[in-house]
């Protein structure tokens, strides 16, 4: 039983490392939103367009956080389907969760 548990832990560790590599690749491939380059006036205008309230006294960094964390842009934008890499990551995550649950790891 000890060898099986150790083999599962080893496989889980390898999967986690592979997952981390894929996430780094995905993160590098994602375009930036360019909010840091905007002026405070432009950021406040974007906040107003999204219907965010209580923005008049916020600093630039706080406005950027509100834009990133707040309600998304207009609901008329179509939802994008996950890419092949995103689908693979979703499947890997589900597998890791199942293995962790089987091993009793939370």
UniProtKB/TrEMBL annotation:
<feature type="domain" description="Rho termination factor-like N-terminal">
    <location>
        <begin position="35"/>
        <end position="66"/>
    </location>
</feature>
<dbReference type="GO" id="GO:0006353">
    <property type="term" value="P:DNA-templated transcription termination"/>
</dbReference>
<protein>
    <submittedName>
        <fullName>Rho termination factor</fullName>
    </submittedName>
</protein>
<dbReference type="InterPro" id="IPR011112">
    <property type="entry name" value="Rho-like_N"/>
</dbReference>
<dbReference type="Pfam" id="PF07498">
    <property type="entry name" value="Rho_N"/>
</dbReference>
<dbReference type="InterPro" id="IPR036361">
    <property type="entry name" value="SAP_dom_sf"/>
</dbReference>
């Amino acid at each position: 039983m000890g060898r099986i548990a150790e083999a599962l832990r080893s496989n889980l560790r390898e999967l986690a490392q592979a997952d981390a590599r894929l996430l780094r690749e995905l993160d590098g491939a994602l375009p930036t939103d360019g909010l840091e380059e905007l002026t405070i006036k432009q950021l406040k205008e974007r906040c107003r367009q999204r219907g965010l309230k209580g923005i008049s006294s916020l600093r630039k960094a706080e406005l950027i956080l509100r834009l990133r964390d707040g309600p998304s842009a207009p609901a008329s934008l179509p939802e994008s389907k996950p890419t092949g890499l995103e689908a693979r990551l979703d499947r890997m995550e589900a597998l890791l969760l199942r293995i962790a649950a089987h091993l009793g790891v939370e």
